[in-house]
Write a structure and sequence with these properties.
Layout lengths: L1 H23 L10 E6 L2 E2 L4 E7 L9 E4 L2 E2 L1 E5 L3 E5 L8 E5 L2 E4 L4 E2 L4 E8 L3 E3 L4 E10 L4 E4 L4 E4 L14 E4 L4 E5 L6 E5 L13 E5 L31 E9 L16 E4 L6 E8 L6 E4 L5 E7 L6 E4 L5 E8 L13 E3 L25 E8 L21 E5 L6 E8 L3 E7 L4 H6 L4 E8 L3 E7 L3 H8 L7 E3 L78
Parallel strand pairs: 2-10, 11-13, 12-14, 13-15, 13-16, 14-17, 15-18, 16-19, 17-20, 18-20, 19-21, 20-22, 21-23, 22-24, 23-25, 24-26, 25-27, 26-28, 27-29, 28-30, 29-31, 30-32, 31-33, 32-34
Antiparallel strand pairs: 1-3, 3-7, 4-5, 4-8, 6-7, 8-9
Pfam families: TIG
Organism: Spirosoma oryzae
Protein name: IPT/TIG domain-containing protein
Length: about 575
């Protein structure tokens, strides 16, 4: 009997414990949380509408309260995830939303003195954007063949993010000039044209929007059905118009472009992307800052350019592919040593195309392997660090990978880089490819690296692919090429300007008087830089110490600039 009682008591105890656990178990879903995730646009004049996105808004407009600072706003429409609100007079910041018993604070907002003009879809007729408006790119904005988009000096254009695409395709704001169209964006040193992020000052970052893309009819070396990268769509065709004219980019800044559309390779849009752009196009005085991919990339074409600035890019500064054969003079790159790309960032990355050389037996037709990528760059200055170069990943400090080379020349390229200086890169020249491709181009003079100073590097020259270190070094060190290696310990003797690496103030890239970079006898003259396009500049790098071509139109603090 006692045994039965004890078992009964134990069963009652277990049953009670299970009941307790069941009583404590909570099968209810968490209550919805009120949040404000974005405001678009982040700057607008009073009397216009903005869209506030978030969660758990009341679906009846009057059941929400929105304040811009201390000023209440009128709510035009409401869903559980979006409120369309009229900006009140004397609007302040921050923007707060109250609904369903909670209050949430949104991103910074600023009142704009200029009307904000949203732009989306395709521009099919001649159009002018004026400096008394701010233009807001939503999704891919195409300028169709036969149309010219003219942008007045001093005009501000803001690119929206993927959530601002009115078509719901998650395409970030991108300006695309199609074949047969023109972009006439001629700013001045006093009134540059600025393409920038739609986000407020202090909140802008790499890849906030797409960028600027020009697509022309000059030759490239890919098949006619080749599509542009970045999801832009369309085909490049088999045009052969080397003097094609896609318009003008002069005194233009492009900031915070380079959006990554997916995690796949080649899915990004660059700051400035040029597909088959012809030599009739004018490009000079262009600064690309904080690009989420390359700052400048040329895919074929013949267009020439002068006075380019690549500032704090994420991947490469100057990337040439698919048979680009133009000429570029005077360019400067300044990098953040803590931010590099997973693909390993370079100043120059130059390819003919992905395979380099066509497979045996494949004919090299006009759009299938030829022309070779064979541009000439002269007077380039590239600054990474005055400290110890590092090949360590930057992923813990804001980047996603590591730095590699000042010049990564690969895949059968025939690029020439002349009278230039590269400081602080882990590698100077990486000559990469096959003996019948890249090395053959170097040996026969198609590819030239001349009058180049590699300073403060871990490895000045190396071979890769089928090219040995000895072959690469023999090429680079030939006396007639006048190339120089400056060891890290000897860097002070190069007499660089102390502000060449400035990231928290306006940099100054002009070497000090007496620098070997300024000695005319150290520079290459004639040959490829004897072409009439090139300004006589018998010195190494982009600056001679007296002519500051950056003055007036550049901006080295775009994260905190008020563009309203």
């Amino acid at each position: 009997m006692n045994q039965i009682i004890r078992w009964g008591s134990l069963l009652l105890l277990v049953a009670g414990f299970i009941g307790f656990i069941a009583a404590c178990k909570n099968n209810d879903s968490p209550a919805p949380i009120l949040s404000v995730t974005s405001i678009s646009p982040t700057s607008a004049p009073a009397g216009t509408t903005v869209t506030i996105s978030g969660t758990n808004f009341a679906t009846t407009p009057s059941s929400n309260t929105v304040n811009f600072g201390n000023v209440p706003a009128t709510i035009m429409s409401a869903t559980s995830t979006q409120l369309v609100v009229m900006v009140p007079v004397n609007a302040g910041s921050p923007v707060t939303v109250s609904a369903n018993g909670s209050t949430a604070t949104g991103p910074a907002f600023s009142i704009s003195a200029k009307p904000v003009v949203p732009v989306s879809g395709t521009i099919t007729a001649n159009t002018t954007w004026t400096s008394d408006n701010v233009y807001f790119l939503r999704g891919f904005v195409n300028v169709a063949s036969g149309a010219t988009l003219t942008i007045q000096p001093g005009t501000i254009i803001k690119g929206g993010g993927v959530d601002d695409d009115p078509a719901g395709q998650k395409q970030a704001g991108t300006l695309i000039i199609l074949q047969g169209a023109k972009l006439e964006a001629a700013g001045t040193a006093q009134q540059p044209i600025v393409f920038t992020s739609n986000k407020a000052a202090g909140q802008r970052n790499y890849g906030d929007w797409g960028g600027v893309v020009l697509i022309g009819k000059a030759p490239h070396n890919r098949p006619g059905n080749q599509q542009p990268e970045g999801g832009i769509g369309g085909q490049l065709g088999t045009f052969n118009e080397p003097t094609d004219n896609s318009g003008t980019l002069r005194y233009v800044r492009i900031e915070f472009g380079g959006v990554a559309l997916t995690s796949a390779a080649n899915s990004e849009i660059n700051g400035l992307t040029l597909y088959g752009v012809g030599s009739g196009t004018t490009i000079d005085h262009v600064q690309v800052s904080y690009s989420g991919d390359d700052s400048f990339e040329w895919f074929g074409g013949t267009v020439n350019a002068k006075y380019l600035v690549a500032y704090r890019g994420f991947d490469d500064d100057f990337d040439t592919d698919w048979g680009y054969t133009g000429k570029v003079q005077f360019g400067v790159s300044l990098r953040d040593p803590q931010v590099a790309d997973q693909s390993r960032s370079n100043c120059f990355e130059s390819d003919n195309f992905a395979a380099g050389e066509n497979a045996a037996g494949v004919p090299l037709t006009a759009n299938n392997g030829l022309p070779l990528t064979q541009p000439t760059f002269a007077n380039i200055s590239a600054f990474l660090t005055s400290g110890t170069p590092s090949v360590a990943s930057t992923s813990s400090t804001g980047g996603s990978g590591s730095y590699q080379s000042a010049m990564h020349l690969r895949r059968n390229t025939a690029i020439s880089i002349i009278n230039s200086v590269f400081v602080g890169w882990p590698e100077g020249l990486r000559l990469d490819g096959t003996t019948t491709g890249t090395l053959a181009n170097a040996s026969n003079g198609s590819l030239e690296v001349q009058g180049v100073t590699v300073a403060n590097s871990l490895t000045a020259v190396l071979g890769a692919g089928n090219i040995t270190n000895d072959q690469a070094s023999t090429y680079f060190n030939l006396a007639a090429r006048k190339n120089t290696v400056v060891a890290s310990s000897d860097l002070p003797g190069l007499l660089l300007n102390g502000a060449s690496f400035a990231l928290t103030s306006t940099p100054n890239f002009a070497p000090q008087a007496g620098s070997a970079l300024l000695v005319s006898g150290n520079a290459i003259t004639g040959g490829k830089v004897g072409d009439s396009f090139f300004t006589s500049a018998p010195y190494r790098g982009a600056f001679n110490g007296t002519d500051n071509w950056l003055s007036g139109w550049t901006n080295f603090d775009p994260k905190n600039t008020n563009y309203n």
